[in-house]
Design goal:
There is one protein chain. This protein has about 250 residues and is α/β, with parallel strands linked by helices. It has one domain: Rossmann fold (3-Layer(aba) Sandwich), CATH 3.40.50.880. The chain has nine helices and 14 strands. The strands form two sheets. Strands 3-2-4-5-1-10-11-14 form an eight-stranded mixed sheet. It has a six-stranded mixed sheet with strand order 7-6-8-9-12-13. α4 links the parallel β2 and β3. The N and C termini lie far apart (about 55 Å). The relative contact order is 0.17.
């Protein structure tokens, strides 16, 4: 009689790879409106997930870290933060793989990518993501997951930036609140210096599952999302009404 492998009886559950790319809002901009933050927690299969805030893009600014704790202590989760300027004493990889959700704050995306690569944090976060941890972030913490992002990392300029490539194409946050973003994003996609992609107003987030865009959600009823392509030599902007998170 042939031996039956245990995995044939109890096959391993395939973990979803999820990323929530937030265009703006959440606790970092609207601490009185935590709908996006509650939605993020709902993506974990844990009743009380371990949420880690990463503030690299802001230089691990203490006030930003404090605002994370102030907001997330109101929610059903276990909180921690990772500061590369004052790293944990334990093994960094072990620290990362212990967490269920990562929330990456805004700031300078170029600095974030340089420091993450120096510390191999990009590798550890990808490993955690492949094992089922949820990745999320706002602004710099949103565009970093894509192939490219439109960034203001160089003061006074909006430029394409090569990012981590966990998600395909490009991303632009703050589409409704920073007036130069729409024309520059259109121009860079049209001239080929940026891939086609998505853009989000503040209060809107794009939810990717297994590398594919599944949902746009919003913490405000009238905010919009956008898919931007070049068709017949012209920019085409598809405006999308995200799902309003009324009950979160």
């Amino acid at each position: 009689m042939s031996k039956i492998c245990e995995e044939e009886i109890y096959p391993k559950k395939e973990m979803k790879k999820q990323i929530l790319a937030i265009g703006g809002g959440g606790f970092t901009m609207k601490p009185e409106n935590l709908k996006l933050d509650r939605y993020l927690l709902s993506l974990s299969e844990k009743e009380c997930p371990k949420v880690c805030f990463i503030g690299t893009a802001s230089g691990d600014e203490k006030g930003y870290i404090d605002s994370f704790y102030d907001s997330y202590k109101k929610l059903n989760c276990e909180t921690s933060h990772l500061a590369l300027y004052n790293p944990p004493e334990c093994n960094l990889r072990d620290f990362v793989l212990d967490k269920d959700i990562f929330y990456v704050g805004g700031g300078n995306t170029r600095n974030l990518l340089a420091l993450w690569k120096e510390w191999r944090l990009d590798k550890y976060l990808k490993e955690a993501w492949l094992k089922g941890s949820v990745l999320a972030g706002i602004s710099a913490g949103s565009i970093c997951w894509f192939e490219q992002g439109l960034t203001d990392s160089v003061t006074g300029m909006l430029l394409p930036l090569e990012c981590l490539g966990f998600l395909p194409e490009s991303n632009c946050p703050h589409f409704d609140t920073e007036v130069d973003r729409r024309p520059v994003y259109h121009k860079t996609i049209l001239d080929g210096s940026m891939k086609p992609g998505i853009a989000c107003d503040d209060a809107v987030a794009a939810h990717y599952i297994d590398g594919k865009l599944r949902y746009f959600v919003s913490s405000l009823p009238n905010a919009k999302a956008y898919k931007i392509r070049v068709i017949d030599g012209n920019i085409k902007e598809l405006i999308i009404d995200p799902t309003y998170l009324k009950d979160f």
